[in-house]
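User: Can you predict the 3D structure for this chain?
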Amino acid sequence: MAGPTVSGKKRLFVALGGIAFIFILLIIRLFWIQIIDGKRLSEMAQEQQTQDTSLSAARGTITDTNGEASSFCSTLISSAASRKTCRE
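Assistant: Here is the predicted structure, written as structure tokens:
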């Protein structure tokens, strides 16, 4: 059985060189994101994750089979207390 030919060695060298080149580009990009843009990206993430956003829940009326409203949109404030949980 013969060893690899010259063209086979060349093809292997080119393939490994391409993989190494891509790996080096990946390392450079990771360095750029972490070190160069790290502070700016961290501030942007902090602002995005801690911003207050209010969403209005506009919902329609739920009707029964006769077309009469069976549920309405309204604000309900309630509180409850249990004797078991409230001790003096």
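The radius of gyration is 33 Å. The beta strands are 62-63, 69-71.
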